[in-house]
């Protein structure tokens, strides 16, 4: 056999080997995608399906369908994926696949977007999947401006950028978000503006678990403004909250410099989940409540029980109406839910309001509280709320400026003095404070026993 024939034969064999390898890679990619869709369905609590996969030698086309829950409108969102696979997908970077994804839009939606972005896709996503199933995702949107010529309503969505690195089987993620914001205006002057949203997420799946992610999220929002009246200013993004006090009073809601932190930690098989939010400015219907600090936490979550509980009831937990969703479970599933929920409380599950504080013109309001039920049983959960009387443990502390209670019309000076005389409240400087405790049927206020049925008469309504 001549050298030229051997060379041709070698090239042919190499081509066949590459083609076979690429075809095999296409099969691996499909399996990875199907596993990923199953993971997303579990995490999101809504159906995420690989509706179609057409595998080719070097390229494949797939479609993902996401069915939103009924309370979100029940619409189906479809993404089309163009997949390059093979040993060198796209001849750009080593890996298992390179995927370009775009939403499939209806003719009506395309017509709405055409004046702003032409025929371009409003959102694009690029994903690279590595050999072990790890990868990177980049999502970007365009500057979208929408106008309704019939009623002069308009909206603007500024370009968004989101990047995420994920580990094999989604066992870790490291993500970042940058979004200058959006705004809408209605013909009646109603206006919504969100500006400067940015943040990061860093989480790792706890070894030996499927749903227990430990890590932290940090987000910042520069401004949020909702104006219900046309007299407020209406600057384009980047905008600012009105400086005129009369104009500021027209805002239904105004927030500035919001910090949001979420953290999950674990020790000794128990997980703590914390949520911290602060705002340097908060106005609600013209009343200032800032600076604001709001810290909540879920403490001592028993990880093995949480894993079983979440696996069985993730869709129920993420439902907008969990009570109605629970009612749709059969009797056996409802009993299983009660047993696992009681087991979480038996391991010390505790819900805390670690701190709620905000400033009024008269001073600072402060509150904290905690709720637990370590002896709660599945049978108790069948007879709520009466079964909690002998099982619930509740503590709370509250401090409010006395003048604020009078100005807001909640109490008059005579009623406040009566609360002090009865021991329900204690004066500390310019504030009234109270400590409430309920321990397995025994109620106290500021350390003094009190009949729970009498508490209703102490409320200002």
Oligomer: single chain
Mean pLDDT: 80
Rough outline:
globular
> How many runs of DSSP E, i.e. beta strands?
23
Distance between the termini: 101 Å
Structural class by SSE content: alpha+beta
User: How many helices does DSSP assign?
Assistant: 8
Outline the low-pLDDT stretches.
Answer: 5-23, 89-93, 230-249
Report helical residue fraction.
10-25%
**How much beta, percentage-wise?**
35-45%
Question: Can you describe what's shown?
Answer:
With 461 residues, this protein is an alpha+beta fold. It has helices at residues 3-44, 107-117, 245-248, 303-317, 322-327, 331-346, 402-407, 413-421, and strands spanning 48-55, 59-67, 76-85, 97-103, 123-129, 135-141, 144-147, 154-157, 161-166, 172-185, 191-205, 213-227, 251-267, 270-284, 287-288, 292-302, 350-360, 363-372, 393-401, 426-428, 431-439, 442-445, 448-449. It has a 23-stranded antiparallel sheet that branches. A hairpin with a 2-residue loop joins strand 22 and strand 23. Residues 5-23, 89-93 and 230-249 have low confidence and may be disordered.
């Amino acid at each position: 056999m001549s050298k030229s024939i051997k060379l041709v034969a070698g090239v042919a064999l190499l081509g066949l080997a590459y083609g076979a390898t690429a075809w095999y890679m296409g099969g691996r990619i499909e399996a990875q995608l199907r596993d990923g869709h199953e993971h997303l369905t579990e995490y999101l609590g809504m159906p995420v399906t690989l509706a179609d996969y057409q595998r080719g030698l070097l390229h494949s086309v797939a479609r993902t369908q996401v069915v939103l829950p009924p309370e979100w409108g029940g619409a189906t969102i479809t993404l089309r994926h163009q997949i390059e696979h093979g040993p060198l997908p796209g001849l750009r970077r080593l890996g298992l696949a390179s995927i370009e994804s775009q939403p499939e839009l209806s003719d009506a939606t395309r017509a709405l977007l055409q004046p702003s972005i032409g025929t371009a896709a409003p959102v694009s996503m690029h994903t690279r999947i590595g050999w072990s199933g790890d990868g990177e995702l980049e999502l970007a949107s365009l500057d979208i401006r929408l106008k309704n010529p019939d009623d002069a309503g308009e909206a603007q969505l500024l370009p968004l950028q989101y990047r995420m690195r994920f580990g094999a089987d989604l066992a870790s993620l490291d993500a970042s978000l940058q979004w200058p914001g959006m705004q809408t205006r209605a013909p009646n002057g109603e206006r919504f503006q969100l500006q400067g949203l940015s943040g990061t997420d860093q989480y790792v799946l706890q070894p030996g678990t499927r749903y227990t992610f430990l890590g932290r999220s940090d987000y910042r929002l520069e401004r949020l403004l909702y104006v219900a009246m046309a007299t407020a200013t209406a600057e384009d993004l980047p905008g600012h909250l009105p400086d005129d006090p009369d104009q500021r009073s027209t805002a239904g809601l105004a927030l500035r410099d919001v910090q949001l932190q979420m953290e999950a930690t674990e020790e000794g098989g128990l997980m703590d989940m914390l949520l911290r939010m602060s705002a340097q400015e908060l106005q609600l219907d013209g009343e200032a409540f800032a600076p604001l600090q709001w810290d909540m936490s879920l403490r001592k979550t028993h990880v093995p029980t949480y894993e079983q509980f979440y696996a069985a009831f993730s869709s129920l937990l993420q439902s907008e109406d969990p009570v109605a969703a629970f009612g749709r479970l059969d009797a056996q599933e409802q009993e299983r839910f009660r047993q696992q929920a009681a087991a979480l409380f038996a391991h010390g599950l505790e819900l805390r309001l670690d701190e709620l504080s905000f400033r009024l013109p008269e001073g600072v309001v402060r509150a904290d509280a905690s709720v637990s039920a370590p002896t709660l049983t599945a049978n108790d959960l069948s007879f709520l709320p009466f079964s909690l009387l002998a099982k619930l443990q509740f503590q709370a502390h509250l401090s409010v400026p006395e003048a604020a209670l009078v100005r807001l019309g909640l109490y008059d000076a005579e009623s406040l003095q009566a609360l002090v005389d009865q021991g329900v409240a204690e004066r500390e400087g310019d504030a009234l404070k109270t400590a409430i405790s309920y321990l397995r049927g025994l109620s106290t206020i500021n350390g003094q026993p009190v009949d729970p049925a009498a508490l209703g008469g102490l409320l200002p309504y």
